[in-house]
Design brief:
By secondary structure, the protein is α/β, with parallel strands linked by helices. The chain has one domain: Rossmann fold. The chain contains 10 helices and 9 strands. The strands form 2 sheets. The protein has a 7-stranded parallel β-sheet, with helices on both faces. Strands 7-8 form a two-stranded parallel ribbon. Helix 1 links the parallel strand 1 and strand 2. The longest helix has 29 residues. The radius of gyration is 18 Å and the shape is globular. The termini are far apart.
C-alpha cells in the first residue's frame, strides 16, 4: 500500500482521470483533499471512494481566482498536519479558431490552466520544503507537446506548464521533492464537452476521438504506477502519443501527418 496514510490534495477532482485516480488512492489507504468548483460532485466522489470525514476533506476551489489559496492550504494543515502529494489537474480546454477568440478567453484559459496550477503549487511548496519531501503531479496534455486546430490558448497553457515545472524540478529535487508531468493523449473524459468556444460558452460536443479514447481508470492506473516508480514524465494514450516521438525525430514527416488529422 504505497500511498497508505499519505495526504493527497487533488484539484479538479470531480470528474475524469482524477476522479478515477482519487478512487485508486483511496483504495491504497490514502487520505484525500478534494477540490473543484462543484461541491456536490466532490461529495459524490467522496462517497464513491468510501471515505469518511477522518480520511477526506472537501475544499471548494475555483482556479480562476486563487486569492484565497493560502487559507485553503492552512485548512489542509489544520486537519492533516502535512501534504505529501499535490495533484494539479483542474483546467479547461478550447474549441475555437484563434482569429475568432477574444483575448479575454485566451487569458481565462491561461489563468485557470497555468496560473491556477502555479498558485496552488507555490502555496504548497513551503510545506513540502519544510518536510523535506513531497510529490507534485501535473496534468499536461499531448497539446503541451505540439499544437492542434482550435486549441491555441489551451496548447499554450500546457506548453507553459512544462517550462515551469521542469524548471521547478531542477530547483527542488535536492530538497526531496519529486515532480511528474503526466501527458495524456485521447482519454475518455468529458473535457471536450466543457471546452470553451470563442464566445465563452461550452462546446457541448463529445469529440469522436475522445469517446474512443483510453478509459479514465486505465489512465489513472498508469499515472499511479509512474508515481511509484518516480518517473519524471509519461505519455498516456493510444497511437496518438506516437506523434511526440515523430515530431522530435522526423519533424517534416510529422508536419505532413498532423495536417491530415480530423479537425475536432
Amino acid at each position: 500500500m504505497f500511498f497508505k496514510d499519505k495526504i493527497i490534495w487533488i484539484t479538479g477532482a470531480s470528474s475524469g482521470i482524477w476522479e478515477a485516480l482519487a478512487k485508486a488512492f483511496a483504495d491504497e489507504g490514502a487520505k484525500l483533499v478534494l477540490s473543484s468548483r462543484r461541491v456536490e460532485e466532490l461529495e459524490r466522489v467522496k462517497k464513491n471512494c468510501n471515505l469518511d470525514d477522518d480520511r477526506c476533506l472537501i475544499l471548494p476551489l475555483d482556479l480562476s481566482d486563487t486569492s484565497g489559496i493560502d487559507a485553503l492550504t492552512k485548512k489542509v494543515l489544520e486537519k492533516f498536519s502535512r501534504i505529501d502529494v499535490l495533484v494539479n489537474n483542474g483546467g479547461i480546454s478550447q474549441r475555437a479558431l484563434a482569429k475568432d477568440t477574444p483575448i479575454g478567453i485566451d487569458r481565462k484559459i491561461m489563468e485557470v490552466n497555468f496560473f491556477g496550477q502555479v498558485a496552488v503549487t507555490k502555496s504548497v511548496l513551503p510545506v513540502m520544503l519544510k518536510q523535506k519531501s513531497g510529490h507534485i503531479v501535473v496534468m499536461s496534455s499531448i497539446s503541451g507537446k505540439f499544437g492542434f486546430w482550435f486549441r491555441t490558448a489551451y496548447s499554450s497553457s500546457k506548453h507553459a506548464l512544462h517550462g515551469f515545472f521542469e524548471s521547478l524540478r531542477l530547483e527542488t529535487e535536492s530538497e526531496g521533492i519529486r515532480i511528474l508531468m503526466a501527458v495524456p493523449g485521447k482519454i475518455k473524459t468529458n473535457i471536450s464537452l466543457h471546452a470553451l468556444k470563442e464566445d465563452g460558452t461550452k462546446h457541448n460536443v463529445m469529440d469522436k476521438s475522445q469517446e474512443e479514447g483510453m478509459p479514465a481508470d486505465e489512465c489513472a492506473r498508469i499515472i499511479l504506477e509512474a508515481m511509484k516508480k518516480n518517473k519524471e514524465e509519461i505519455l498516456v494514450g493510444g497511437r496518438e502519443i506516437k506523434g511526440v516521438w515523430l515530431k522530435r525525430h522526423f519533424p517534416k514527416w510529422f508536419g505532413r501527418v498532423i495536417r491530415k488529422q480530423k479537425k475536432e
